[in-house]
Design brief:
Elements: H1 3-10, E1 16-19, H2 33-36, H3 48-52, H4 55-58, E2 63-66, H5 78-88, E3 91-96, H6 103-111, E4 116-121, H7 128-131, H8 137-154, E5 160-167, H9 178-181, E6 187-194, H10 213-232, E7 236-238, E8 258-261, E9 266-268, E10 281-284, E11 287-290, E12 297-298, H11 304-308, H12 311-322, H13 327-330
Parallel strand pairs: 1-2, 1-8, 2-3, 3-4, 4-5, 5-6, 6-7
Antiparallel strand pairs: 8-9, 9-12, 10-11
Helix pairs in contact: 6-8
Length: 335
């Protein structure tokens, strides 16, 4: 089939493409599938030749986000991928734990033209280190400071500096400290996430899923107060909190206009549907279930446009409008 002739007509216009450049990681976060499933985990780097197959799609995407279940800066071709994506004409972002950002790497981040870099945190003080072993709260803040100084020295406005904050129930009180810690570091935005994928039942207590109106209002008030205080320092705070009993019609992962590419080149609707793991179970809304990846194709076999236009993938995206979701999505905590 001459896909190269048809591709200009079939290429999707996507809001973003999330690319897992590597599934290797130098941290051992207690809540992360990489840590929990380490005995069955497949660590690999996405080949640069496979990444290059995405370039026609990147030319029509608003953003490519270079991050999955690993630490992106471990990939030896990370900056080559940034360069290729920028040449394709899209915005480029990534999330890092900050542990590999020495002076040379920080300079390269600024000079690469990267649009956005988010630093992962799961606390507002040194207690973060116990949640994310292998990382250091102090070193993360130092890396942020060094990046901001490098931007000022080079006269650069980018990359924008964000915080990717994991809110766990046991550390909910730490959230109020963030507005006191971040001012003056050059951070523009804090995106608060909750534990949406629970790799083992012992972690279920860390989810943020209000069961009553009172609990919802209490959590809402806390998040709103944090956002308002942060706003006084010029920090934007984004979060989503699902009201008890309210059903979501569409996936917050934007599966209608976004997708995820794993480090093995396999395409799925989102990062939660494409863990590089075998023989694992996870905690869904209706209890413990065996984990199965949801894959729609592989870049080594078909162009991304052809994968996107497969009837089975089209039917999957349409299922969110009919309410006939597959089990993985129906039982997802994000829904």
């Amino acid at each position: 089939m001459p896909w190269c002739w048809l591709s200009p007509l079939l290429r999707p216009r996507l809001d973003w493409i999330q690319v897992e450049v590597t599934s290797y990681c130098n941290a051992a976060c207690v809540y992360c599938p990489h840590t929990v499933y380490q005995g069955h985990w497949a660590s690999r780097h996405l080949p640069l030749t496979t990444f290059a197959k995405l370039l026609p799609a990147l030319a029509r995407a608003r953003l490519v986000y270079l991050q999955g279940w690993g630490e992106p800066l471990l990939h030896p071709d990370f900056f080559n991928m940034v360069a290729l994506a920028k040449q394709a004409g899209c915005r480029v972002g990534t999330t890092t734990n900050g542990m590999l950002l020495d002076a040379e790497a920080i300079t390269r981040l600024v000079e690469s033209g990267l649009d956005l870099v988010a630093f992962s945190l799961a606390g507002a003080d040194e207690r973060h280190d116990a949640i994310r072993p292998g990382t250091s709260f102090k070193k993360v803040l130092q890396a942020i400071q060094a990046l901001q100084r490098a931007k000022e020295k080079l006269g650069a406005l980018r990359p924008a500096i964000h915080i990717a904050y994991m809110l766990l129930r046991s550390r909910a009180a730490d959230l109020a400290k963030l507005p006191q810690v971040l001012p003056g570091l050059g951070v523009e935005q804090v995106v608060i996430s909750t534990l949406d994928f629970v790799p083992r039942k012992e972690l279920a207590i860390e989810t943020i899923l209000p069961q009553t109106t009172g609990e919802y209002e209490e959590l809402s008030a806390s998040l709103r107060e944090t956002a308002e205080l942060a706003g006084r320092y010029g920090l934007k705070v984004h979060y989503q909190l699902k009201e008890p009993g309210a059903a979501r019609l569409l996936c917050p992962e934007n599966v209608q206009r976004a997708l995820f590419v794993g480090a093995d080149g396999r395409v799925s609707p989102c990062v939660f549907a494409n863990l590089p793991v075998t023989r694992a179970t996870y905690c869904a809304r209706d209890g413990e279930r065996p984990y199965q990846r949801l894959i729609w194709g592989k870049l080594e076999e078909l162009p991304l446009a052809a994968i996107w236009r497969q009837q089975a993938y089209i039917n999957f995206r349409g299922s969110f409008f009919t309410g006939r979701l597959i089990s993985l999505c129906r039982n997802c905590l994000k829904m």
